[in-house]
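Fold it.
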Amino acid sequence: MTHALQALWHRAVDSGRIVGGVLLLAEAGKIRYASARGWADREAGRCMQRDTPLRLASLSKLLSSVTVLRLAELGQLDLDGAVSDWLDYFTPRLADGSPARISLRQLLCHTAGLGYGFELPPGHAYWRAGVSDGLDSATLSLEQNLRRLAELPLLFAPGSAWRYSLATDVLGAMIEAASGLPLAAAIQLHVTGPLQMQATGFAGDQHLARAYKDTSGLPVLIGEDDTLQLDGGVARLSARRIWQADAYASAGAGLVGTADDYLRLLECLRQGGAPLLSPASTALLLGNALGDLPMASRGPGWGFGLGPAILTDPRRAGQPQGPGTWGWCGLYGCHYWVDPQAQRSLVVLTNTAVAGAWGALADGLVAALY
């Protein structure tokens, strides 16, 4: 099993399609396979190391969700309370101008009526309004960005559909309002500190892997003001953002960290959530929060929790993993999943967007293991 996984991983990196990365597989709490391979900086000849930090992009969302749930346990946030109770300026309306009520729970499971600019057609309202997805070099404050977002009509009535979105950045502002702490300090207090995830945060250093993007040939470096073509739209990226003191800390996309740090979080949640969350809160995080709402981008057999996607019906989804498997990916080239039935946790952090996040590598690793 691990031989097939290793062969696939080596081929992906040695071909140059993945510039570099770290892959960790744990089973029943023990590391079964660990590999750092390729380049952290291809041009300088700096090898990827197991402790090399990489941009987590949307893998940041899991830490932000855990922080929100912890604040709810402490009575500082109410999952069913209105966002406007904490952020009085965040009151977006429906397309017809009528008012809408958005709850924290809807933000957590992406049913709030918001979207991401990189998933909308060219010339969309988010771009025209200058709304940042939290990945570019925009020098807006978080409040300035959310005020712009709040001026735009919602894409649908809250609770009526699922759409991946900037909701987690809204949660970042709510974390700050409820806790009285900057987002980085709140996540450190409630997640990274208790788990000793010392390499995870919102600041880069000289060890951070350089960022690359796919082309028809070998991947190329992501620049300071760059774009990435996706199936549904265009993402605006800046490899420099992590060093910009005037760029807001994005709860949805702004963290950097190491594979070992992230595996520590996955294993903590797989085993019930202590010391971060109670079993009840962990069950909310990792249970399907959509009910009968479809998760359109994944198709039948998938739901969404209060942070990750949830495999609700492996047969309908055509997946070999067990029911209840949860996971997500990050645009810069990372993904993870946890199969609670098999007691397996896999984390793959690469520096190559998007080949390390979804597609042949991610699908091939699942096939190799099952």
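The CA atoms of residues 211 and 351 lie 5 Å apart.
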